[in-house]
Amino acid sequence: MTNTSQTPPFHLAIPVADLAKSRQFYGEVLGCKEGRSDEHWVDFNFFGHQLVIHQKPVAEISHKPVANPVDGHEVPIPHFGVVLSWNDWEKLAEDLKTKNIEFVIEPYIRFQGKIGEQATMFFLDVEGNALEFKAFKNISQLFAK
């Protein structure tokens, strides 16, 4: 199914053991505005999308490290994130560097000079969830083969 007008926001809910630390990470480190919340969950405006963190006991959360080779890097799986404009991606990369975020894959240009050329970076949230933020030189190549 394709949407010819505006892309609808996605909704993603993830488990976290420490609601306070995760709330601080998404709110202060990534700058996501907080929406509704309750004792055990918090909604965030995740770059125009709805991200919900749900508190769960540590024993119920599994972050088994798995990776897949892409362009000479081991990409963590699963991961989630957002495709930003090139300028917004550059600003976020610089902001995260000043906040001393430890990158799984440092910000770099992937598939340089090829179809789908993109800026990408990977890092973990405070719970070990892998995030990827990317930007395309030519956004029309988002799904190009």
From TrEMBL:
<keyword id="KW-0223">Dioxygenase</keyword>
<dbReference type="Pfam" id="PF00903">
    <property type="entry name" value="Glyoxalase"/>
</dbReference>
<feature type="domain" description="VOC">
    <location>
        <begin position="8"/>
        <end position="136"/>
    </location>
</feature>
<dbReference type="InterPro" id="IPR029068">
    <property type="entry name" value="Glyas_Bleomycin-R_OHBP_Dase"/>
</dbReference>
<dbReference type="GO" id="GO:0051213">
    <property type="term" value="F:dioxygenase activity"/>
</dbReference>
<dbReference type="InterPro" id="IPR004360">
    <property type="entry name" value="Glyas_Fos-R_dOase_dom"/>
</dbReference>
<keyword id="KW-0560">Oxidoreductase</keyword>
<protein>
    <submittedName>
        <fullName>Glyoxalase/bleomycin resistance protein/dioxygenase</fullName>
    </submittedName>
</protein>
<dbReference type="InterPro" id="IPR037523">
    <property type="entry name" value="VOC_core"/>
</dbReference>
